[in-house]
Amino acid sequence: MDDDLIARLRTGLPPEALLTDPQVTASYASDMADFCPAGAPAVVVLPRTVEQVRHVMRTATALRVPVVPQGARTGLSGAANASDGCIVLSLVKMDRILEVSAVDRIAVVEPGVVNAVLSRAVAEQGLYYPPDPSSWEQCTIGGNIGTASGGLCCVKYGVTAEYVLGLDVVLADGRLLRTGRRTAKGVAGYDLTRLFVGSEGTLGVVVGAVLALRPAPPRQLALAAEFPSVAAACEAVCAVMEAGLAPSLLELMDGTTVRAVNALGKMGLPESTQALLLAAFDTPDAPAALAAVGELCTAAGASAVVPAEDEAESELLLRARRMSLTALDALRPATMIDDVCVPRSRLAEMLDGTAAIARTYGLLIGVCAHAGDGNTHPVVCFDPADEDEARRARESFDQIMALGLALGGTITGEHGVGVLKKEWLARELGPVGLEMQRAVKQAFDPLGLLNPGKLF
Amino acid sequence: MDDDLIARLRTGLPPEALLTDPQVTASYASDMADFCPAGAPAVVVLPRTVEQVRHVMRTATALRVPVVPQGARTGLSGAANASDGCIVLSLVKMDRILEVSAVDRIAVVEPGVVNAVLSRAVAEQGLYYPPDPSSWEQCTIGGNIGTASGGLCCVKYGVTAEYVLGLDVVLADGRLLRTGRRTAKGVAGYDLTRLFVGSEGTLGVVVGAVLALRPAPPRQLALAAEFPSVAAACEAVCAVMEAGLAPSLLELMDGTTVRAVNALGKMGLPESTQALLLAAFDTPDAPAALAAVGELCTAAGASAVVPAEDEAESELLLRARRMSLTALDALRPATMIDDVCVPRSRLAEMLDGTAAIARTYGLLIGVCAHAGDGNTHPVVCFDPADEDEARRARESFDQIMALGLALGGTITGEHGVGVLKKEWLARELGPVGLEMQRAVKQAFDPLGLLNPGKLF
């Protein structure tokens, strides 16, 4: 079977595009999510052209072999994990930036372009591609599209979905579908573009994208505020948003996270704080806006408000925030990273509730949050070798999602469902929601070959 | 048949929610698009609750009767036109604003809320709902969602789709589907919310929406620039966007439109101009930004640049622009309004080409455009009683769409497909695109009862 598959794949692919050594293919088995099952791929394919991708999909359909599309495998939900006997279809070699237009404010790219490479390329033309997931130096645009990635910029600039204007997609049977547009607006037919964004490779293989760009804003200026409680910091977040301010970043780190970052990076953050709030603005009136935020923080009970002296100091603060997950990961042998997003008016309840869950289960749970979005990342730190602790970790992880749903939130703000949260997707969507999701899957992939076992 | 239908409908609807008098029901037959076929409804239903809508859809499915959802019928593509024997399902009585939150920056509304009513209600809380189609004093949010409406704000704020976070939808068989979220971010499953936006009532009936709001910006300040040619005005548009400026409005009126507006509204616009460009900014640095635009206009060949003295004068300029379609409509017995959107780098070619088409066909075609978006509204003015002129009008209308597609554009930037452009949708999407659109329709409405004959 595998021999036939590989022989057929060879007919439309150069030798270097096919990896079959089991030791090599095993290294493509999973993304960065721990504790998600992953199978052994039959083969890894690294195409360089759309035609090669079509050949792979035609072959997969002919032989009924599942296909798992992959980018840089920096995902956090197991959405890119291989299934046994599958073709891993890695798009990382399709990494050309085909066009950047300052007049049309678009970029046309292949899926394997690394996020940071694109960001730098457009910056050279005075342009800005906002989505900035924390893995931006590694992750690809195709992966960002597959998972609908977010980042620190979202409170002002929104998520990846808002920057995808059109797509070229190879369907399960090898047909090439072009969706969307190159224009600023367009309403010709159903919005299939958005359907693919966040679909985790289950509806088709993205082989090209037209992305929207913005003019580059001024570099941002930041401020840090220390709070005696997480709830007070959340109150400040609500006050900032209610006041109509438009920060380019509004991030929260709890005391556990602050101390973890200090331990890892010697950042010199205030050790005794219960919550550190970082706000930034990228507008000409940033100093005034930061002053307004400072006043709102003080009114909410901040014990200290420290504006960065300049852009370099601002960048240092953001580096501390970007280091949070790595720092929490270093505290204990393993972590599970949650991604619950609630209406920001419920943020304090979410975080207080998370702290209560940590106490109930006797676990260390550090939280960093895209607070302006209500998007929290509780990081459950534990030792998987300790069976009881591992069970408590899993239960607390689930309790956090249950709390998020009870507060009118979602189980995933930006990391996606993958295999990690598929049971929870059904809970969030309810029976009718799930039926219609499955109906869409059926319409695009009737044989169920694309990334099976993910989402549902 | 009709008797059975009406008897069944009565079992779940109050008497005043059912209109059966043929003279009355006939008045619900069509939207504002001319020259689109419309049938005679069997009945018009005006529900006030979700449960009533579900009853209507269950009845329609049981009896296999088509249903045409309607808002205020201000659409311009015949998407809300009745088909013979259908149930017209008018959502205008479901017009409650259920919630407005400044902290969460959302509004929760029923579909029949009028756009301007919502805009004013949220403005009272210092909030802003950007989408502003020119019919905003009449059109409903449900209609805006169905057609994915645009407006003057789009160059900075985008279209309706970007403000719809979640939906309650009654499916063809009466099931209630909840999509999306109340949160700022969320990636749980396929984005069905966006699939419904712009689907013209062919996939389900929107009965509730969670809308994103923004903080209210300062009132905008505008500038008018006169150009000796449309091409020069388009050059200025490209220069403004290439310079990284972010106008809240960037509109173009050709000479024909300017003179039509003067004739209708005694606006005192410059009669001899070939193109009038209006730019506005709603930021604290608006005067400086307008000065920069003025310089770019002059460099592109503007013969005069006139900044508005204040907000009131700015509002007057915008009123002239908003009057354009009505003014062009008054020139001749009838009009056909096109809605082609091209990459803005191709705008000059689009408008010069449109002028050439007008000359070739010996027709009066006035153009106003959301120039910053590359979205043009060529208005073909003609006398339908003159058979030859009517034929030329239809042909020129089609030639304009063909030109838009040849320039990498779309046949519709914001007005939708309806019945007016359904042949052209197939051309724009191509065979695979159309197949997948139909597959989606099949997944949601297997019996084909929802707004049949629209889109495809």
TrEMBL record, chains A, B:
Residues 37-216 form the FAD-binding PCMH-type domain. Its cofactor is FAD. SUPFAM superfamilies: FAD-binding/transporter-associated domain-like, FAD-linked oxidases, C-terminal domain. Keywords: FAD, Flavoprotein, Oxidoreductase. It holds the Pfam family FAD-oxidase_C. GO terms for molecular function: FAD binding; oxidoreductase activity. InterPro entries: FAD-bd_oxidored_4_C (IPR004113), FAD-bd_PCMH (IPR016166), FAD-bd_PCMH-like_sf (IPR036318), FAD-bd_PCMH_sub2 (IPR016169), FAD-linked_Oxase-like_C (IPR016164), FAD-linked_OxidoTrans_Type4 (IPR051914), Oxid_FAD_bind_N (IPR006094), Vanillyl_alc_oxidase_C-sub2 (IPR016171). Coiled coil: none annotated. The keyword Hydrolase does not apply. PROSITE patterns: FAD_PCMH. The keyword Cell division does not apply. PANTHER family: GLYCOLATE OXIDASE SUBUNIT GLCD. Belongs to the FAD-binding oxidoreductase/transferase type 4 family. This is FAD-linked oxidase.
